[in-house]
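Kindly inspect this today.
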Amino acid sequence: MFRSGAGRVQISQEQIAARIQALGQEIKRDYEGQEPHLVCVLNGAFIFMADLVRAIDLPLTLDFLAVSSYGNAEKTSGEVELIKDLRLPIAGRQVLIVEDIVDTGITLNYLLRLLEARQPASLRVAALLSKPSRRQIEVPIHYLGFEIEDAFVYGYGLDRAQRDRNLPFITSQA
């Protein structure tokens, strides 16, 4: 399999798969009898979202939005721009934001404020990765895949200058 620029594997394909199955079970338990509406934050969370929805044994709906605070850089600019908005209304819905990584908290805080204003019945967050040492704004993460140290990571949907999203594991620069 193609391994463009793969550095040191931080989280293996098997670890990711097992954790997503566990998250799917947690989400199923918490939303039993409801129809959650999952909102994927593009581009980084698309692979996580695809695997997560298959692990949730409930009827659900989904939508996508896109924001930018990095561009091609490895560090956030600190300013968030909405690039693609939701297609479906979320008022009165049980909304679950699906995010790839929570770093400074700036982007997720922006999304929480944006979506809360649309009056969902509930608003929760599922994140594949969290870097608490980089947090500038504390934000809730209800379903977390992995907590990681402060390193630039990519693979499994996360990019390195728009490349390496297709790696089946999460790696960092060697």
About this structure: Helices lie at 13-30, 46-55, 106-116. The first strand starts at residue 8 and ends at 11. The beta strands are 8-11, 37-42, 61-68, 81-84, 94-102, 122-130, 143-147, 153-154, 170-172. The chain has one domain: 8-172.
